[in-house]
Specification:
Blueprint (H helix, E strand, L loop, with lengths): L6 H19 L2 E2 L2 H8 L11 H16 L4 E5 L2 E7 L3 E5 L9 E4 H4 L7 E12 L5 E11 L4 E10 L4 E11 L11 H8 L6 E7 L6 E7 L15 E3 L5 E2 L4 H14 L3 H18 L16
Antiparallel strand pairs: 1-10, 2-3, 3-4, 4-5, 6-7, 7-8, 8-9, 10-11, 11-12, 12-13
Amino acid sequence: MVMGPSATEQCEKIQADALERVLLEVPYNSAVQFHEHFGGKAYPRRLGLSCAFQSFEVGRLVAEQTGVPAEYLMDGRHVAAVYFDETRVTVLDPYLLHRVPLHLDLADGADGADGVVRTVADAFPLRVRADGSPAPSRVRATWRPERDELVLEYVRFSPRRGHNVVSRAFTLRRDTALTEVPPPAAVVRPLLTHPEQNNVSIRVVHPGDLHLREVVFPLTGRADGVKPAADGLLTKDNQGAVSLPGSHRFDADLALVAEAVGEEPSRVIAILLEAAAIHDRVAPAGNPAMPEYAAVDE
């Protein structure tokens, strides 16, 4: 007798499909919420969402098919969609670009007597070393059940340094779960002007070649009163190489980002510059200084 997939297997496939859809169809876009919350404009899903709203989107897709809601756990301004049961935790965090769901299972992953569970998954960008060998990014997840605590670390290869570096790290606890999804505007707006937000960008995994590309407008480095302009933009390619306006590489990166989101390059530029101008207008004068954006090759 041929047995069909179990309920667990079906749920895992739905989660994996939802994650892939968000990675390829709903890129990270830190500009759109400035337009929404301060500019009165809404943009289509294909233009992307901020990191927290990418997590809300992947959770929505899973809930539509399974009826199972995610718990949305926070660390500062970051939010991940997390699913708990008695023996397993599953994490979906599109901002960290992991290619498959992170499953942490007590039965399979208990790490000795301490009861800590660990797993790792490949992530974008899929880079290469100088010798041509593959150097995929990775997300490392650590679950400490006795603390109801998850630690997520995003590690990617730095071609300039020649080794892997931790790019992001978040600690998520169940007592930080959001009680309202999405959060009200009064909660979101101060987070948008937090000093950590030192740029606005659109970052895509291009569905054609699965390369990561980004168009960025740094919010730092301009003299007071100087309006955001296109000559302040930069792009990053799959290897993390920075290109500036006027170069062939900049134009090629910009065109592929625009293609991935279904817009003309000029419109991508306008969305970023308008968001930067909104930030200049609404950021509180008493905010601490933003850390300088590092416009260097990774």
